[in-house]
What we know:
The chain has helices at residues 19-51, 55-72, 75-91, 95-110, 115-131, 136-152, 156-172, 176-193, 196-214, 217-233, 237-253, 257-400, 408-434, 447-464, 485-501, 563-573, 606-613, 627-639, 650-659, 676-685, 700-710, 722-735, and strands spanning 443-446, 468-473, 480-483, 507-518, 521-530, 578-583, 587-598, 619-623, 643-647, 664-668, 692-696, 714-717. It is α/β, with parallel strands linked by helices. It folds into 5 domains: 1-184, Alpha Horseshoe (Serine Threonine Protein Phosphatase 5, Tetratricopeptide repeat); 195-278; 342-437, Helix Hairpins (Orthogonal Bundle), CATH 1.10.287; 439-598, Histidine kinase-like ATPase, C-terminal domain (Heat Shock Protein 90, 2-Layer Sandwich); 610-735, 3-Layer(aba) Sandwich (Rossmann fold), CATH 3.40.50.
Amino acid sequence: xxxxxxxxxxxxxxxxxxxxxxxxxxxxxxxxAKEKEAVEKIINxxxxxxxxxxxxxSLDLSSKALVRAFKLDDDFLIAHxxxxxxxxxxxxxxxxxxIEFYTKALHYAESLDNNPLKxxxxxxxxxxxYYSKIDVGKGIEFYKKSLYYAVKSNDSSQIAYAKLxxxxxxFYLGQFxxxxxxLYETKNFIERKGQPESKLSxxxxxxxxxxxxxxxxxxxELYYRKAIAIGESNNLNTFTASVYDxxxxxxxxxxxxxxxxSVRRIYKKLHSKLYSEAMPGDLDDxxxxxxxxxxKNQLEKIESTNERQxxxxxxxxTISILxxxxxxxxxxxxxxxxxxxxxxxxxxxxxxxxxxxxxxxKEVAEQNSQLKTQFISTVSHELRTPLYGVIGITDMIxxxxxxxxxxxxxxxxxxxxxxxxxxxxxILQMNKMEDxxxxxxxxxxxxxDELLTIRNSLQFLADNNGNAFNTIxxxxxxxxxxxxxxxxxxxxxxxxxxxxxxTRNGEVTITAKLNKFMNNKYFIxxxxxxxxxxxxxxxxxxxxxxxxxxxxxxxxxxGTGLGLAIVKRLIDLFxxxxxxxxxxxxxxxxxxxxxxxxxxxxxxxxxPDVMEMVGKExxxxxxxxxxxxxxxxxxxxxxxxxxxRLAASGNEAIEAAQxxxxxxxxxxxxxxxxxxxxxxxxxxxxxxxxxVIALTAYDKKEVTEQAANAGINDxxxxxxxxxxxxxxxxxxxxxx
Length: 736
Ligand code: ADP
């Protein structure tokens, strides 16, 4: 029995990941669906042609269907096409080829989740093996597989057919006990819903069973007759003929020859009728046989073409997959590049912003620092100007009224003014050093003279406290060395004045000793030693900090608390360090080493000549707008036995200098209208080359360069020690 299935709707397509392919895929799915429908139609037509005996047409249609099914790469349609082809071959007893094509059909069906299809193809294979008597056992195996798929698809009619086929095959092999089991299982279904064919088979098989197994002849005959009746009433001639055949065998087996003869006659009649019906088909057989061979060849060609196409498809699939992977990799790379770029940009932006902020902060800091410096410098200037007046006037009073030398209030006034001046100077210096603006200067100088000067200028402090004050200098130290004399003197003055302040009725000694001469440098060890109150060990570190004063008693030793802080920074400038050795009530020794270079010139030419100048009466022009300062400066000059001429402005000064001749001009810088620089410049332009010394409350460093450019010869900072001013004047005159 050959079976055909109605074609099923095609499967839903897989969803592809790559978006760009989706569109193409959608169009393909549509056209594919149509093509599949067409192929299904062809297979159905082939089935119809087969049923109506048009085998040639059936074969033609199913081979065409196969070609198109291959193109579609549709296993379902391929399996169906092969199944249809195999059916025609089987019909023409080409059992081997039928098996070959059914096997191919089964191969393609196996990959599908389609139980009815697998059921049918297995059943068809079982038929070939059984009915062609190629291998009945194998036939049973295929029937059992078919039964398995029929059960899976829950098709009771197919289950019954499979079981009837299994029973039939077992009976053929004489294994009645095995076969009957399957037959009994069909009883229920066949009685209720069985088709005439299955009812006929069922009764016929029961007849056989009773003939051969139970030997119940009566029962056997009853079943045969029942089967024949069903066959005849339903015109199932082929089946009826086979029952007659079995019935004849039964009668012969039980030696009822006469009855057998009459039944055989009926059978022969039927057989000849069947034979005559089959004749035309038989006659065509040879012609069809030739065509079948041709078809077989064509099919082989189709298959090999398909094989090649499949290979191509597989290759192109591999290429597609590789391309896909490459594309994905590239996409990831591009994405990563993009991310990195974004990250870098962000980082750059952040860095730029941070830089800008830093730059802005730096500018603000610089501005602030400049403002601070400017502020301190202005404040110092503004303080120094009136201080010049206070100190100068105090000196004048004491000078003119000798009876007031020991006046307490006057001395307090002088002390306070000096203290204020010290403070201003210290703060200014500290500020400059913190700004790192201070650099060492190098000039030739005499260390011997320097120590002498220090001793002279601090002698009054020593006397105040009843101290002996000594300076000891190593004769090994050359007469002149090269270095920053001013900074060294600042260090020594600070240390020595402290020693003198914190010692009563004791002894203070400054020592300079040559340590070594190395790399063309004199390394000189300095010590400032006293036997005063000493410094507690715990305080020895602190005293170098700013504004630190230990156990300061009201009205006690004076000072700003900046002295040692300045000393420490100055010594740093010399690339050296200071050490302290002190014990309370025993005394203190500060020690440090400074390297000086060899002097460039060995003898000091100025000193003796300068001294010669003392005593000569000079004409001095003082250019000063401040009345108090005019008065102070005038007094200083006249007290030293010189003549003073005053000019209150730049213009007045120029006029005076043009009319009269002066030995020296003392020029204030900060004047309303024409300032000291411009006045000097004008004088120089007018051919007046009288030495000009600028008197300023500014820091010397701040004005030196501008002063030199204007033609000013030297600068002295107010308030000043009168002796210093005169020394400067003599120096200028000597140069002149
Ligand atoms: P000041 O202006 O107070 O002298 P310094 O910085 O020079 O400030 O000194 C800080 C403090 O160190 C002083 O106030 C004092 O207590 C202590 N000191 C400095 N030198 C000596 C010394 N030679 N003997 C005792 N104490 C000293």
